[in-house]
Amino acid sequence: MKPFFTLLILLLMFIIAPSKAQRNITLGSFLTTQGVNTSWISPSGDFAFGFQLIDANNSYLLAVWFDKTVDKTLAWYAKTNTQIPELVVVPSGSRLQLSSNGLSLLDPGGHELWNAQVTGAAYANMLDTGNFVLAGKDGSTKWGTFDSPADTILPTQGLVTGVQLYSRLTHTDYSNGRFILQVKDGSLEFDLVAVPSGNQYATYWSTKTDGNGSQLLFNATGRVYFTLKDRTEINITSAIMGSMVDYYQRATLDPDGVFRQYVYPKKEAVRGWNNIGWTTVDLVPRNICESITSQDGSGVCGFNSFCAFNWNLNETVDCRCPPRYSFIDQAQKYKGCKADFQPQSCDLDEETMIDQFDLIPMNGVDWPLADYEAFTSVGMDDCKKLCLTDCFCAVVVFNNGNCWKKKLPMSNGRMDSSVDRTLYLKVPKNNNSQSQLNSNSIKWKKEKKYWILGSSLLLGSFFLVCILLISLIVFGNYFATESKKTDLSKQSSSTGGLPLKSFTYEELREATGGFCEEIGRGGSGVVYKGQLQDQVGTHVAVKKIDRVLPDIEKEFAVEIQTIGWTFHKNLVRLLGFCNEGNERLLVYEFMPNGSLTGFLFDTIWPSWYLRVQFALGVARGLLYLHEECSTQIIHCDIKPQNILLDANLTAKISDFGLAKLLQMDQTQTNTGIRGTRGYVAPEWFKNIAITAKVDVYSFGVILLEIVCCRRNVEKDVTNDDRAILTDWANDCYRSGRIDLLVEGDQEASFDIKRVERFLAVALWCIQEDPAMRPTMHKVTQMLDGAVEIAMPPDPASYISSLQ
Questions:
Q1: What share of the chain is helix, strand, coil (3-state, %, to 5)?
Q2: What is the rounded CA–CA span in Å between residue 606 and residue 626?
Q3: Which residue in 96, 350, 424, 697 has the most C-beta neighbors within 10 A?
Q4: 71 is catalytic
Q5: Is 529 annotated for ligand binding?
Q6: Taking residues 678-693, what's their average pLDDT?
Q7: Residue 459 domain-assigned (yes or no)
Q8: 3-state SS assignment for residue 166
Q9: 218 and 360 housed in the same domain
Q10: pTM given for the model
């Protein structure tokens, strides 16, 4: 009898559980901010509706969220029913009640804070689409959260005339931000608005379908498009993700004004992996920094700041302050930057003005609307003097005899490679030794506490990562084995990683025009420029792998998915692949500015500021590969040719992860040396295990090249002592003549303390003994000035100790 009762219980559980999960929420039900009734869950458990705590002051939002994602991402939150909807924040002890008249949100004193009024509501339901609805007896929807979105739309949701998406003010402040997405006068448009009034300044992106547009739709396959009255469809994003079974999806108007489409692998949410998050698959507009130029308001970033947008789908806008300026509020950068000095007095005579203030150059930056006076047919010295002797002038621009003066506050600032002029920023002179630190020293002191706090948080997170890695080791073989059983087509469509596209060879042959335009060549293959036949004609770089050995071909798709999971703003993104017959091709995002080689070793040196960004970017990319991605990747061939530059001159590491595809053993040297002469670590030539420290060595060499704007080995130099850069740099460092390394470089000489710091980091990285080299985590800390740097040992001392 016992087996019978067991079977009966299991049968009852099978019958009852689903009906309980899918039951409607009856009238009279309620939610509270604390206790057991804080939310109602959808049948699948994917979504929840209820109260979400948003800060330490016990403030709550009434919201819908993805209940299985690590961060419980909000998809909707309640706002008032006024003309300009305002955020509804409720205190602890508030209560939500369901009645036939709809929903009523009450504070602890019983006063109504918000309502969703309907007539004849019979029940409510949290649907698996993410739509929380009030329904009548006939099942018709009386009201739903899809009808009044906040900053996000979900698959199966639409946006019609009169309904707006308001961006948040910041990622942690859900108040109305500075951007609106709406269907207006037959067009889909993005508008810049004033805070907090909501006054609309200007449209910065539009479908320009005046009078013909109907609605914005996000269909179940992940396609976001705008429909016209004649049923024509205009793609807003180019990503098509397929079934909602594999991915959570959302499209959000982010605080920086960019409309991004995100995906989150469902199976990773089920496993609870906290190193997996939302991945951007497309965005509009392509470059927000260039899209907004408004006479009113500050633009993308705050007044006196400038916008730097790295063309990377996972990267947000970076708002920055010019030298000797700092953010008014570090947590709310949209408020802009203020000068860290007293403005020039208008009571001074011209000679005193010139003696007290100076002009420092800024390359690639512009505030296009700040001009207030212009001159023609003047020389550079006269142009500078016109600004120095004008107490209103904050910045001056000189270009081919033309001179423009700009005054504060400056708006619509942007940094971009297309800006081919040099600005001169007016700052006070300082002759004391402390002021001769780099021009960003004031900013650094203010930001140092954030680094210390960040380091503490990283230390705490380290233990969690250890637990995660142990779990990965235990279960890794199982999942890898299961993955290998799946054929390529299944892997490309149902993998838990980023949805890489599987291209046919014919598609890539057509995209590259028969592989005719070669843009790169290396040990792993040849790279060709191509253009996909998609809605936007995406430019790509197609690498033909010519050295994949037969016994690794079956592992090709598995390793490609590992690379596909590797995302960072300083890594070249893999978009897709081809695994057809004997052909193995990789499709990367196209880097229009080529490699670091062309910039560093040209006749015209890039600015010191830009070189600093190159160094920091490469360091952070390597840190991600070594310590932050799910599977450690040792590059083994770090060199300037493998550092590519996007449209905004952001440095990105290419060719990472190819060692396994090329059957390279990353633990021993018995498969031969991998790397490039001048950048190869000494252990490749010895019977020493190969570790991530080989990349650290290569980075040290590149760092010296970035600082000095010359190759590591120069055969044509007149002084033999300078032929090998690593040796010369070490000599200069130990003799106290660092200035010789940046001789003739005014910007770097002005920032000599940072030059000294970078040089010390490089000398630590190129130590002969791998154990003495720092990790990339330590390297990034030293580069940023977050930790003290001890004097690096002289490499000669290591050599003598071996003799």
A1: 30, 30, 40
A2: 28
A3: 96
A4: no
A5: no
A6: 84
A7: no
A8: strand
A9: no
A10: 0.55
